Amino acid sequence: MKLTVLIHCPDQSGIIRSVTTYIHQQTGNVVYLDQHVDKQAGVFFMRLKCEFEQELDLVDFKKGFATELAEPFDMEWDAYTDEYQPKMAIFVSKYNHCLYDLLSRYNSGELSVEIPFILSNHKDLEYVAEQFNIPFFHIPVTKETKAEAEDQQLELLKKYKVDFIVLARYMQIVSPKVIDQFPQRIINIHHSFLPAFAGAKPYHAAFERGVKIIGATSHYVTEDLDAGPIIEQDVTTVSHTHSVKDFIAKGRDLERIVLSRAVQLHVARKTMVYNNKTVIFS
Amino acid sequence: MKLTVLIHCPDQSGIIRSVTTYIHQQTGNVVYLDQHVDKQAGVFFMRLKCEFEQELDLVDFKKGFATELAEPFDMEWDAYTDEYQPKMAIFVSKYNHCLYDLLSRYNSGELSVEIPFILSNHKDLEYVAEQFNIPFFHIPVTKETKAEAEDQQLELLKKYKVDFIVLARYMQIVSPKVIDQFPQRIINIHHSFLPAFAGAKPYHAAFERGVKIIGATSHYVTEDLDAGPIIEQDVTTVSHTHSVKDFIAKGRDLERIVLSRAVQLHVARKTMVYNNKTVIFS
Amino acid sequence: MKLTVLIHCPDQSGIIRSVTTYIHQQTGNVVYLDQHVDKQAGVFFMRLKCEFEQELDLVDFKKGFATELAEPFDMEWDAYTDEYQPKMAIFVSKYNHCLYDLLSRYNSGELSVEIPFILSNHKDLEYVAEQFNIPFFHIPVTKETKAEAEDQQLELLKKYKVDFIVLARYMQIVSPKVIDQFPQRIINIHHSFLPAFAGAKPYHAAFERGVKIIGATSHYVTEDLDAGPIIEQDVTTVSHTHSVKDFIAKGRDLERIVLSRAVQLHVARKTMVYNNKTVIFS
Amino acid sequence: MKLTVLIHCPDQSGIIRSVTTYIHQQTGNVVYLDQHVDKQAGVFFMRLKCEFEQELDLVDFKKGFATELAEPFDMEWDAYTDEYQPKMAIFVSKYNHCLYDLLSRYNSGELSVEIPFILSNHKDLEYVAEQFNIPFFHIPVTKETKAEAEDQQLELLKKYKVDFIVLARYMQIVSPKVIDQFPQRIINIHHSFLPAFAGAKPYHAAFERGVKIIGATSHYVTEDLDAGPIIEQDVTTVSHTHSVKDFIAKGRDLERIVLSRAVQLHVARKTMVYNNKTVIFS
């Protein structure tokens, strides 16, 4: 059995030694350990993988961890078994490139998740869901029906026990009602190199400014629009020969890859959030 | 004799044909031609190199060009001989990395310029000027003396017939008085991926925001601070393991290379400015 | 009507002027022109787009071009109308990532081609063809049946009037019999940064060598294995933390994007081949 | 007092726990720990930084470490204090770009080393050494005098207690006589993306092959030419518009930055070598 443990706590002496000793006592063997100290904030972060030759009683392990480590060191922490495949809902609108990218990776076995459903405020991409045999829910959103639509969304998310949501170019602002239920568990792709060109029409804005590089940014969604903790970014060069349309086409390739990388980091439990920033373990 | 011709004018039929025909009539041979049309703005840009086997009377060539082409096509244009080495003044403050980079390229023959002098508001980098045997002028700038200091700068720029100025981390805002004398001929390096983190302390701001990529931007200086036409940008990845100090160190390498590339593009007459954007010929 | 003209010929005086003059005589307007001179080889390359307000008689245009330009300047050339969508056959084996990438771009309208069929030596990817409603032909290949299999392939290629072939991780060596029918019209993706690690198992070889960067290369297929003219390459960083499996996973993302870019360059008629190298117009 | 500890040993249970416990017993506090397991080879690697509030007796610390940890776990290891600045000799021939880059970083305080001397088989760069006030030794090398020249080199290296050597475009093959004295302590820069284009004239070879990306590689020197463990690589794009001369100019920028990064990794004790590959800690 394999376990991934994520920890953060006030920086102090003896954490690594105590944790590795506890795991040893539980007959586990540490096979990976990465840690980071944010000196400014005084916070210690650790990601650790351990293997247990004998069957592990996870409840007991966690109870002991809580008493012997989490409490004295004041830790926020969690432990995940490798077997569990998190349930990922995908929200889309009309663009299919990110959706296709996620689904083809899912189909190839690159993405260790279950996809209980795809949800959209439009019907345009229903055919893609059908191609991949995944349930599709159409929940239109207007100013007037937004509250009600989000209730329906929450109901579905609950019913299907969704662990996290991917906004694969979902062109609606998600309200706090949903965000609060999925803190650091909604992943968005923004089509610019944030914080440059936050908001709508970033490729147009980039074109206007005459930049030589455009980007895409994947981040956890917070109430502050386009300002959540950044998980992954990438860029590509552009020149005066490119029109806004070219920016958009080049950007699609960025959006695809940046979103997929962010999702994979999240699924592999390699992300931790602190102070609106991420620690991304390697 | 080699000539580089830069043209922009309203887009219309027959420009390439007319220009190449004129050059042919002058017994020249076009050895390179690159053009671009900004369809939104309706503007045609062209960069062209031609060789003349016989001695060319440049004054005559220009006169004919003006009458037969520039006037009917409503062109802004210029023609440069390859022999002339432009005179480049370098303004610095206390950081030496961009200065060293420019001077070592200059020394290796990578940069086809003359450097009549280095100017600074501090004495810190006088030793570098001495290492490379280049005149150094120290003109301190305070709020009170700024106007006077810029007069002294302008005097030196005039006296040494400076063609363009490179701000190699010159930590002073250049006022319109100087900019107006050197339109599109002052090159600055900004230590961020503009328009993200314009203004002071961009590395600190980038660190605070938790970006995964930092950049540097070289642009022509306009009255609008950090908002001039972008010549060149580049980026590098950062992670949670990097402190602000690391950002600054990694950024130095970007600043060096981005500024040097921009200077080389300018010197090679590969840049044109229109609508606060650049066309960069290859 | 829009026309794209590709030319290469011995470098000599007057080409641009003559071509633009001819197009003007045909009541066409040059809207884009890019040229390149390979000085070592003494060859001139040009890509040109022109628009005709009146209906153009393409046969007449070509006849005149041949007589007035191609013959005197000793040109290899062709002219393509923008309306024609080339027919692209895709050959695959068992990996689906490049196939999915091409098909999702095709579906999104990013790729201006027709896809008459997908062909494979295995049945594994038939389901993908079905998802996208594209005919799938299964032609197994063994040492003994290879000649016969290629006859079947050629028959299909002829029947469907295929213009060019994309080997989307087709794990068979294509023999001269097929290559000769499709010179510079078979595009392969090799999973290394050629010429490093040509041949089989490049990720394993890269891992063994301990490189810090891996790549992918798309090239036209020639009889010399993995040595054809390179169309596009890209790379990504790796480190000691990555296993061969990680190399392969990271490589998949490179292969996808590099192959798609190469296909798009080919479709847009932006590639020319000379001396086993490509000229790639922007 | 700060200590950096580097360890590699057969992978086994309990290493992290035992090491962190030992450091705790010595009243030290682990402030950074990074480890890596090469599963194929069954080798465990660790880099660790610890601080000691009280004065540490380094000899005692090392003695205890050897007995309690290194022996039972069969470790290869070393411990370095942060105060010591390694002595770096620079070997050059005629190109000055890498030398200038190293020296300007040294001058800016970016490089925590002492530079006892610069050595060359030519006199061309003596002036650079003079600019930076560093002793310069001219030791010509011919086929006949090579053995003798290397004896002189070894004498200088010994006299100045040199810790490691940087070949900053030193155009001579270093023989085993010198390599054996500086195993994993001679850093070379090769002007290609190794293993592509090993040997002489790599830019010419890259140009001939028509690659779209060129690179530079910094590696530890072994007896096998251009085949030592790779420390750092980087690449840049090229196109058909670039001549060999352009490749060389673009390559210079790569060589500079790749060599400097490799040197900095070495100086920071972030490199370990195993099986002709490097582990590069972050």
Automatic annotation (TrEMBL), chains A, B, C, D:
Transmembrane segments: none annotated. InterPro entries: ACT-like_dom_sf, Formyl-FH4-Hydrolase_C, Formyl_transf_N, Formyl_transf_N_sf, PurU, PurU_ACT. Pathway: Purine metabolism; IMP biosynthesis via de novo pathway; formate from 10-formyl-5,6,7,8-tetrahydrofolate: step 1/1. It catalyses: (6R)-10-formyltetrahydrofolate + H2O = (6S)-5,6,7,8-tetrahydrofolate + formate + H(+). Pfam families: Formyl_trans_N. The active site is at D226. The keyword Hydrolase applies. It is an enzyme of class 3 (hydrolase). Keywords: Hydrolase, One-carbon metabolism, Purine biosynthesis. Its EC number is 3.5.1.10. One of its GO terms (molecular function) is formyltetrahydrofolate deformylase activity. Residues 87-263 form the Formyl transferase N-terminal domain. One of its GO terms (biological process) is 'de novo' IMP biosynthetic process. Catalyzes the hydrolysis of 10-formyltetrahydrofolate (formyl-FH4) to formate and tetrahydrofolate (FH4). Belongs to the PurU family. This is Formyltetrahydrofolate deformylase. It comes from Flagellimonas zhangzhouensis. The lineage of its organism: Bacteria, Pseudomonadati, Bacteroidota, Flavobacteriia, Flavobacteriales. The gene is purU.
